[in-house]
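tokens incoming
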């Protein structure tokens, strides 16, 4: 079966500014896929090109195998939900959802059945006759979603649809959106600059930087095996330790860091002895060891900040660099100024090229 979406060498520039740069991206049907990246990296432009609101300067966009690069929005079977999700204020909930179905020329009993089915999906059956002004923000958002899903698009495009909501409602809607996607089996292409939002909902995350795909993968892989400094820093927090490769095979990478032998997972890139690398150690992967051991290293607690369900610690090691550790209750009672022994599980550390190192 053809992938539902394919971008093939797609470039879009506005004057001199290249918004999307030779993008290649394949999306499989039925997945929740998120374009994630900082402001200006080209996420919205990518989404708008798939929606037909922008035409690429070069390259092709295929929808279920068919070239739609130059088709206008109403001639391609996708639908878009924007942040401001403007419902038609003079139409009730049912008529808002029915709008796209009427345009398609469905008969009124088929429309009624589909509207009720969609309202049931978001537990709003009793709200069919309400006007948008009589709904809460979350309810309006659900109606906007159902309106976009009503004509059964091949892909639903969502451009930061939750960013106007307050934090609590936003979290609720993230769970709900994912659940709607699972229940309908539709392909959702979601745009956000919020890494937590992306991790919560996505089957696949496409991390974008400067108009290009930096890395694509499922949330767990992106978090545990970032392949660049950009991804390591953009998704979660990372300690980046300068090290040299001693040896590398399919089982793992042996390294020297700060005069010590340490280990990490095998790298996604080919590595050889002497290569300069960065070890990515997540704050929660640092372990406090009860006694000094050959495997650990010494550090001094410089800062300890209580955060409720965890404590954040800044630890200075003997080369003067500082590491961040995330400590769960009961893991360590070490106080500021105390000397500690630390280590990490090599299965919880990964290695990336040190792009700043010569050679
Ligand atoms: N209509 C336009 N005219 C000129 N430049 C544009 C236009 N739309 C976008 N750009 C530029 O293209 C680049 C990518 O913009 P885009 O909106 O795709 O980024 P984004 O990743 O969605 O950012 P944000 O999260 O801020 O929405 C930016 O540098 C932006 O300034």
């Amino acid at each position: 079966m053809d992938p539902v979406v394919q971008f093939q060498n797609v470039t879009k520039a506005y004057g001199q500014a290249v918004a999307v740069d030779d993008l290649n991206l394949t999306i499989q049907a039925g997945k929740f896929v998120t374009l994630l990246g900082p402001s200006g990296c080209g996420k919205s432009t990518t989404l708008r090109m798939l929606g037909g609101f922008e035409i690429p300067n070069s390259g092709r966009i295929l929808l279920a195998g068919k070239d739609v690069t130059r088709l206008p929005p109403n001639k391609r079977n996708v639908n878009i939900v924007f942040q401001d999700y403007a419902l038609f204020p003079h139409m009730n909930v049912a008529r808002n959802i029915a709008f796209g179905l009427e345009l398609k020329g469905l008969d009124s009993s088929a429309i009624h059945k589909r509207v009720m089915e969609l309202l049931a999906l978001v537990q709003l059956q009793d709200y069919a006759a309400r006007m948008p002004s009589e709904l809460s923000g979350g309810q309006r958002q659900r109606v906007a979603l159902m309106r976009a899903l009503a004509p059964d698009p091949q892909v639903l495009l969502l451009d930061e649809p939750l960013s106007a909501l307050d934090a609590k409602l936003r979290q609720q809607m993230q769970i709900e959106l994912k659940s709607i996607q699972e229940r309908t089996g539709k392909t959702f292409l979601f745009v956000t600059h919020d890494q937590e939002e992306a991790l919560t909902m996505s089957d696949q995350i496409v991390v974008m930087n400067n108009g290009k795909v930096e890395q694509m993968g499922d949330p767990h892989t992106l978090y545990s095996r970032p392949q660049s400094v950009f991804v390591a820093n953009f998704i979660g927090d990372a300690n980046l330790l300068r090290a040299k490769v001693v040896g590398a095979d399919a089982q793992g990478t042996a390294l020297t860091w700060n005069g010590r032998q340490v280990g990490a997972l095998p790298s996604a890139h080919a590595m050889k002895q002497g290569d300069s690398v960065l070890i990515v150690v997540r704050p929660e992967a640092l372990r406090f060891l009860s006694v000094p051991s050959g495997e650990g290293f010494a550090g001094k607690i410089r800062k300890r900040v209580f955060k409720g369900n965890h404590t954040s610690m800044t630890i200075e090691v003997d080369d003067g660099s500082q590491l961040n550790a995330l400590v769960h209750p009961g893991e360590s009672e070490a106080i500021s100024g105390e000397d500690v022994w630390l280590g990490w599980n090599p299965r919880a550390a990964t290695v990336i090229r040190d792009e700043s190192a010569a050679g």
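note: Residues 14, 17, 19, 37, 39-45, 193 surround adenosine-5'-triphosphate (CB under 6 Å).
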